[in-house]
Queue: 3 jobs
Job 1
Amino acid sequence: MQINIIIKKTNHLDSTIVPHNYHNLLNPKSMKILAIDDQQLILMSLEKRLIELGYDVKTADTGQKGIDIFKQFSPDLVIVDINMPGLSGLDVVKHIRI
């Protein structure tokens, strides 16, 4: 499995999907990412690659753990699986957007 992460700066940004501190996307050393997924293989692969790129990464294997980490970690970006048992990814997104 190969994970490619492409970050591209554009002139047209949709404020509903762009993090409030978009400039940090281009400076990995100052960006914190939270990845939430119930599949360990995907979570570990994503975490490994993001760390290799220099990002500060935390992971959670359930929606509730992700919400708890979100409150303490204050990530710049959250990557979340939509289909998870218990709290779905959509439930997580609804919770952290409040």
Job 2
Amino acid sequence: MENKSKILILNKNDNVGVALSPVKKGDEIVLSSIKKNIAVKEDINPGFKICIKDVPQGEDIFKYGHVIGIAKTAIHEGEKVHVHNLESRMALKNGKI
């Protein structure tokens, strides 16, 4: 099912976007700003991040054009990006991880 939900993507280098409305597993999201559609792999609430490009384990996560952390595991397009699969750069910088 195609979903016209809005996903905020501010920079061409971003590999995550922010859901501005709820998205459901199985929805197809139209990302007109980058001319791409993605299949949603799990329910994602507004304000949460969704992976818009596959990210290998250990690679940087970009949001709003800035690195916000690294992938703890491989993160696939359409999956939620959160503490279960993202290590914060702030925590790494402060020696907490």
Job 3
Amino acid sequence: MSDRVLHIPELSHANHLTRTEVRVLSYIASGCTHIEAAAILCRSPHTVENHMRNIHRKVGTSRTALLAQFARMTGIIPAEPVVVLPTPRLQKPTARG
């Protein structure tokens, strides 16, 4: 086992996140993929990835696991685990004939 120390980002960094970044972080930290978060937010996965890059830069970490801890410590997501249900897929209408 490694003796590496994980440094949790400072809580004051939460004040620098936009509302959209907080929403994106809440979904990603709760276990959603970029694609799932994009579908929930009605945005493209590329947009969600851009928001995540900005969040990583503002908070000062490149590790999503640390962002999840940061989100729990700042109250962005609850401390206890949350079950994330998959979003339903829209079915294509079938031609009747």
